[in-house]
Specification:
One of its GO terms (biological process) is cellular response to oxidative stress. By secondary structure, the protein is mainly α. The chain has 27 helices and no strands. Helix 2 runs parallel beside helix 4 and helix 18 packs parallel to helix 21.
Length: about 600
């Protein structure tokens, strides 16, 4: 007789003997031990059987333990041995699709007897998964995920989401097929959850203390999706900032670009798209997420006395389900990536967030600043996403809108300001070992300076030149200043403008000693442009006194002869030399 036939016979006889002894003496513990030993002896090692033999064995077990000869269910047997059967059959989930289906059918029959106990067993099994044996655990996990049915899921919504979400943290221990299987199972679960919970019956609020079931379910879905975005994006390490600059700022040569294979790009884009559609379907809001992160930080800063005095009708502790600030920023970066980069024909013309860019930028500043001021700045994956969000929002804001008071305005109770972000960015741009992130931090600094009014701009440049302890950042400040000077000069020479080149009062008051010689030099340059070495147009002189530069270009400039063109080129080079000398003077003063 084959081992399969022996197993079938032993199980059938074991069931009959157990039921007979229990009818005689319900307290007979020996009958329980004997049948449990029979199950473990013949079922605990699936490798003893072929695929078809496994299917036959499990079908025989199902018939033996579920139905009597008269067709009635053996509910007592299922209830008594549910945990033993569940534990023994879990390895069959990782064997073959056919055996997995039969095992899941038996689990469903057990669940009909005791749903809560079945879910408890599943949660217990989650905690026992050995991720050092990646292949086996990945298959078992994928099988357990299939066990969750929509009609019973909501009864155990919180526990289920918490146990499943924990597995996202195991991705760093996986690779190859095991990694793909677990990721697919987790994303499938996220999609199933968003299709199960009813999001249309009421308007949901994301709060620190949910006060009703709809808000509680909405909170849990937010937690699951933000965790999914954060852990998945971290596991695949998509260089979003680099891809953003490659597409929308092609003039920058980025030698450190990391090219993904076409297949990886399609898979990653498809998975992000699935998570994005799930987030849209569930109605999670970028505005509510950002506000939640701000509010939960304020809550954790309360004293124990304040927390005890805090009145709430919720008995659900949301701190057990942390929606992290890093996760929220990763989600916002994923929105930018998906909407403006990953999709064909995408662009960044429209605002991708529910709030205006200036309002969202102000709210993001305190959250982002903490990452640059802590050890989190060494986590390159999250910093890449934070820089993308800040760069995107800063580019949506208008220039010359940040005033000097705005720089020092307290944005949160812990007194975070835009100036603090600027200082943290300057330190990061000077010390980060990652070349690409240093570049993007420098671009963000330049953009923040461009958003400032003249007095705020000169204040930030002065901060970099005089108080920043990093030599490379002081050198970068010289470059930023040079770029601003060249930009203003070019604007003045290219078209009539009422914008003052040196009208910032702070600059005029503090740097008068070299601005006056610069004005004289500009006078000589404009005179040379007119090819009249010893004369100066009176109106141009008045314009210079007012702090403006208006080159007196004639209407027939296009018809100038070659000699005059050479003179103009000489004058242009001389003007650039003047800018260089200005920067040298500023650099020398900053070192004193």
């Amino acid at each position: 007789m084959s081992r399969l036939e022996l197993a079938k016979k032993a199980i059938e006889e074991g069931v009959a003997q157990y039921l007979a002894k229990i009818d005689q003496d319900p307290s007979d513990n020996k009958a329980y031990i004997a049948f449990e030993a029979t199950l473990e002896n013949y079922l605990s090692n699936p490798s003893n059987y072929s695929e078809q033999e496994q299917v036959d064995l499990l079908n025989s077990l199902q018939n033996a333990i579920v139905y009597s000869q008269d067709g009635t269910k053996k509910e007592q047997l299922l209830d008594t041995f549910s945990w033993t059967i569940f534990s023994i059959l879990v390895p069959y989930l990782s064997q073959h699709e056919s055996t997995s289906e039969v095992a899941l059918t038996i689990f469903e029959l057990i669940a009909q007897s005791s749903i809560r106990e079945t879910y408890t067993m599943i949660f217990e099994r989650f905690s026992l998964l050995d991720w050092e044996k990646a292949d086996v655990s990945a298959s078992e996990f994928a099988g357990l995920i299939k066990r969750f049915k929509r009609n019973t899921f909501l009864k155990f919504c919180g526990e289920t989401i918490r146990y499943v979400a924990r597995v996202w943290s195991e991705l760093e221990n996986l690779s190859g097929e095991s990694l793909d299987l677990v990721i697919e199972s987790l994303i499938d679960f996220a999609e199933t959850v968003t299709q199960t919970v009813d999001f249309e019956s009421a308007e949901h609020r994301l709060t620190v203390a949910p006060e009703n079931i709809p808000d509680l379910e909405f909170f849990l879905v937010n937690y699951l999706l933000i965790t999914s975005f954060e852990k998945y994006i971290r596991s695949v390490d998509i260089p979003m900032s680099t891809m953003y600059y490659e597409k929308f700022h092609p003039k920058f040569n980025i030698p450190w670009r990391k090219k993904q294979s076409k297949d990886s790009r399609l898979v990653d884009g498809g998975r992000i798209g699935r998570l994005m559609k799930a987030s849209i379907f569930s109605g999670i809001s970028d505005e509510q997420l950002v506000n939640y992160v701000i509010n939960v930080r304020q809550k954790t800063q309360l004293t124990e006395e304040d927390l005890n005095a805090e009145e709430t009708s919720s008995t659900f502790d949301t701190l057990d389900y942390p929606i992290s600030s890093g996760g929220v920023l990763t989600y916002l970066a994923s929105v930018i990536y998906y909407e403006s980069i990953a999709q064909e024909g995408s662009s960044i013309k429209r605002n991708l967030f529910s709030e205006p860019p200036d309002s969202m930028f102000k709210k993001i500043i305190p959250i982002a600043t903490r990452f640059f001021m802590t050890d989190g700045a060494q986590e390159h994956e999250i910093i890449d996403k934070i820089l993308l969000v800040l760069i995107y929002l800063s580019e949506r804001n208008d220039e010359n809108t940040i005033t000097l008071p705005n720089l020092n305005a307290k944005l949160t109770k812990d007194e975070v300001t835009l100036e603090m972000l600027f200082q943290a960015l300057s330190s990061f741009a000077s010390t980060s070992p990652n070349e690409s992130l240093r570049f993007y931090a420098h671009q963000l600094l330049s953009r923040i300076i461009a958003l400032c009014t003249d007095d705020a701009r000169m204040f930030l440049l002065q901060e970099l030149l005089t108080t920043c302890p990093f030599e490379q950042m002081r050198s970068a400040a010289i470059g930023i200043l040079k770029e601003n000077v060249v930009q203003r000069l070019n604007q003045a020479y290219d078209k009539d403008s009422d914008t003052g080149v040196w009208n910032a009062s702070q600059l005029r008051d503090t740097e008068k000693q070299f601005l006056d010689p610069l004005k004289d030099k500009c006078t000589a340059l404009i005179t040379k442009y007119e090819n009249e070495p010893n004369q100066m147009n009176e109106s141009n002189s008045d314009q210079l006194d007012e702090g403006h530069l208006h080159p007196p270009l004639s209407s027939d400039e296009a018809s100038l002869d070659n000699q005059h063109s050479e003179d103009l080129s000489d004058a242009s080079r001389e003007r650039e030399g003047t800018v260089e000398r200005v920067c040298q003077v500023i650099e020398e003063r900053s070192k004193k």
